[in-house]
Specification:
With 171 residues, this protein is of the alpha/beta class. The protein has helices at residues 28-40, 60-70, 86-92, 105-121, 141-149, 160-170; strands spanning 16-21, 43-49, 77-82, 97-101, 126-130. Helix 1 links the parallel strand 1 and strand 2. The radius of gyration is 17 Å and the shape is globular. The structure holds adenosine-5'-diphosphate (ADP).
């Protein structure tokens, strides 16, 4: 059996994970992943990307605000926004883990490509995939926006103030 060695500098190190995405808008699926990540990491930084989606419903400050309201009370979760490469942002934040959510097999191909590309760009950054509760595994921001535009009540999928904001945006 190997002996357990603790190196100076390894003790009390804060484990930070970055959860990047569009979050246009945040859904219960995203919140489920954030809560799961908080069980493993000391701090989770939810990072809204400026360049992920071409025609978002909400601008970045609005998406940040909806996330902040949704995460109120979760002290170890932080919300930020970033431009450019995820790996550069991760390094700037002195983290080395990226969290991504995997809903179904259909997410896998794109996520796999992205994780391996990020690894090529920066070998010290690891991507960790997490699965949401099965009750959220079909949820996507895109679907919610489409359903809301057709008049659906989306309160089962997003916090009530997010549902209200979506309704207001869609007029
Ligand atoms: P992106 O445009 O980067 O895919 P999203 O906001 O759509 O941004 O999603 C951010 C991350 O959250 C992605 O890893 C995505 O797979 C994941 N995600 C989105 N919806 C869900 C959900 N319902 N359950 C679990 N993970 C999800």
């Amino acid at each position: 059996m190997g002996s357990l060695r603790i190196y100076p500098g390894e003790v009390n190190m804060t484990k930070i994970a970055i959860y990047p995405g569009s979050f246009d808008p945040v859904t219960y699926g995203h919140l489920d992943i954030i809560k799961r990540a908080l069980k493993i990491f000391d701090k989770v930084i939810v990072a809204v990307a400026h360049n992920a989606e071409k025609e978002p419903l909400f601008d970045v400050p609005e998406r940040v605000e909806l996330l902040r309201r949704s995460l109120k009370g979760l002290k170890r979760a932080e919300v930020d926004d970033f431009e450019g490469l995820v790996v550069n942002y991760v390094k700037r934040k002195k983290a080395n883990v990226v969290i991504r959510g995997l809903r179904m097999i259909s997410d896998f191909e794109y996520e796999f490509q992205m994780a391996l590309t990020n690894r090529k760009l920066c070998s010290s950054v690891e991507t960790i995939f997490m699965m949401p509760s099965e009750s959220y595994s079909y949820l996507s921001s895109k679907l919610i926006k489409e359903a809301a535009a057709l008049g659906a009540n989306i309160k089962a999928f997003v916090p009530v103030f997010v549902a209200k904001a979506v309704k207001e945006k869609l007029g």
